[in-house]
Write a structure and sequence with these properties.
Blueprint: E1 8-11, E2 23-28, E3 31-38, E4 41-50, E5 52-60
Parallel strand pairs: 1-4
Antiparallel strand pairs: 2-5, 3-4
Length: 61
C-alpha cells in the first residue's frame, strides 16, 4: 500500500525508533482504519495502528 503525506500512523510502543523522514518502513501487525466514528457520522481519517515499525534498508522515496 502506498501512503500519502497525511496518513496518521500510531505506534503501540513506549520507545520510538529513529527513522529518517521519507524512509521506506515496514509495519508490524498493521491495522488500517480509514474511518472513525464521530457522533453519528463516520469521518475519513486514514489511520494505521501498528505494534512496531522499522526502516527497510537501501530503499528511499
Amino acid at each position: 500500500m502506498k501512503l500519502g503525506n497525511s496518513v496518521d500512523i500510531r505506534l503501540e510502543a513506549t520507545e520510538l525508533p529513529k527513522i529518517e523522514p521519507y524512509a521506506v518502513v515496514e509495519l508490524e501487525e498493521p491495522v488500517y482504519a480509514p474511518y472513525v466514528q464521530r457522533g453519528n457520522f463516520p469521518v475519513l481519517v486514514e489511520k494505521i495502528t501498528c505494534k512496531g515499525i522499522r526502516p527497510v534498508a537501501n530503499k528511499n522515496m
